[in-house]
Amino acid sequence: MTNPNPEIRIPRFDAYERVMHWMAALSFFYATLTGLALWSPKLYWMATMMGGGYHIRGSHPWVGVGFAVVMGVMARRWANGMRLDADDRIWLTRMHKYATHDHAALPPSGRFNAGQKMLFWAQLATTLALFVSGFVLWFPEWMPRSLRLLSIAAHPLAAIGSITSILVHVYMGTAAVPHSMRAMLRGYVLPEWARFHHPKWYKAWRASHHV
Amino acid sequence: MIVAKLIDTTLCIGCKACEVACQEWNDQEYTMGTFDGSYQTKPELEANFWNLIKFNEVEKDGATSWLMSKYQCMHCADAGCLAACPAPGAIVPLANGTIDFVHENCIGCGYCITGCPFDVPRLNATTKKAYKCTLCSDRTAVGLEPACIKTCPTNCLTFGERDELLRMAETRTGELKADGFADAGIYNPQGVGGTNVLYVLKHASEPEQYGLPKDPVIPWTVSLWKGPMKWMGTLMFWGTVLGAFFHFVIYGPQDPEKHGHPEEPSDKS
Ligand code: HEM
Ligand code: SF4
Ligand code: SF4
Which of A47, B109, B256, B265 could bridge A196 with an S-S bond, Cβ 3.0-4.6 Å? Predict the structure, then answer.
């Protein structure tokens, strides 16, 4: 065939991956709002919105642990496919080309492009940092002072990192890359989308399906 | 008018009447500890025990002596607990210099414990709220002196206008120096802007001997967290949001029709 058949649906994320992703997103959203409220009196209105300060002091750590567990599941599912290959390394040095839609200057991507892979690893790193430091802040009575002093700066620092990277991610998923939302909500993409965004992945799919 | 408490450690006889008065006035149940071979009531402050007389045993000039000290909230001018607290109205600096805890507004995060350079506030395991000495704000508000002051039998404790107490402390230090205690002095650490609990110490150059930190300051990680990091966070948040928005305005979404990929696998392959 010459042109990709627009009728074909290429499966991208199965139900397991979609549920896992949206559980991460929802718990992240909740932990962000309640966490920011625990940071500053100026952001305390978020606590009021989420059920009051006393309540969120109880719930934030539990939701955080839930988020960390989901991220662990995500790591098990995706870590292998998120390793950078030679093309990805070149891609990263030409990231500005990606941002300015100069796709001709970029090496082809596999199932995930190098930017998505970096987001994944960044999220894993910040999740680990948030989990460890958050655990210390959870039980101030039982934790040594030195660890508390370290965590009280490390936790919000890691949070700033993960929140900003998720802001970029949300922008990409909703506005910058049309139809990617369909992949994460319904699980499939159309051939034209796959060919443009993830050529190597598309090629492999075609090879295995003999189309 | 800033009020303060002056503790002349040279006059303390370790009777612990002030501990009892504090428990009584604040209606706190006493939690039994274990006897650990010391005259000191407890090793540490507790959520329902806000005022501890420390029996610091030190070797001085070949003799063992007790350097008595009274351990409670210092009511700092620049209070680390307040800097750390996220809940509006949970820690309230009163006009008279007292740092008061209002438990209705406390959410039990425990950040005040980490922010306090003197390690004073304690969380109650059942109510999940933080507690410490209030300088008897409920007494001082109606012109009474704090319970510990009221009960002290030796005049080791004095309550009053801060400037006045500083003058008294100077006088007392002069007396001690005349008596041969060359190192006598006042403990009023400037790293936290001065405290509203002042001490007269015989060995002022070594406050650690009394269990008092030498140069207390708000921990730098707490200052970082509540200072520059907030600016950084605000900047990064709005930078990213606006950056994404204007990226969209300038470049628009990715479009396979317009931005085709030359290296895409040929359909003829
Ligand atoms: C609520 C906000 C979110 C939205 C709208 C969103 C949207 C999306 C979309 C549309 C995709 C599919 C991209 C593709 O097909 O290539 C995706 C993938 C992914 N999401 Fe999210 N997501 C959100 C939050 C999160 C959070 C909180 C995390 C983790 C902490 C996360 C981690 C990932 C990862 C690792 C992938 C796969 C790689 C990638 O596409 O970057 N997402 N997301
Ligand atoms: S001693 Fe600690 S609890 Fe008391 S005012 Fe100072 S920082 Fe706050
Ligand atoms: S435990 Fe209470 S008083 Fe202490 S920082 Fe948290 S909200 Fe403020």
Answer: B256
Q: How far apart are alpha carbons A113 and B147 in whole angstroms?
A: 69
Query: What domain range is A131 assigned to?
Result: 14-172
* Closest CA in chain A for residue B129: A54
Please give the Cα distance from B92 to B82 (Å, whole number). 8
Contact residues, chain B, for A140 at CB < 8 Å: 109-111, 113-114, 123
State the CATH number of the domain containing residue A22.
Answer: 1.20.950.20
Contacting residues for B142 by C-beta, under 8 A, at least 6 apart: none
Is A27 part of a structural domain of the chain? yes
Number of domains within chain A:
1
Query: Residue A58: CB partners within 8 Å, gap ≥ 6?
Result: B128
Does pTM surpass 0.80? yes
Interface predicted TM-score of the whole assembly (ipTM), two decimals: 0.91
B192 pocket-lining for ligand 3 (C-beta < 6 Å): no
- Domain B3-217 falls under CATH 3.90.1170.10: no
B55 contact partners, CB below 8 Å, separation of at least 6: B14, B38, B39, B40, B66, B68
Ligand 3 mean position to B85 CA, how many Å?
Answer: 5
Successive 10-residue mean pLDDT values, chain A, 211 residues: 71 98 98 96 93 96 98 98 97 96 94 98 98 97 96 97 98 96 96 94 91 71
The pair of structure tokens assigned to B237 is 């948040």
B216, B197 contact by CB (below 8 A): no
Question: What Rg value do the Cα atoms of chain B yield, rounded?
Answer: 27
> Does any domain span residue A187?
no
Q: What angle do CA B133, B29, B88 make, to 5 degrees?
A: 40
From residue A164, how far is each of A132, A133, B126, B238, B242 by CA, in Å?
Answer: 20, 19, 37, 9, 12
**What are the structural domain ranges in chain B?**
3-217, 223-268
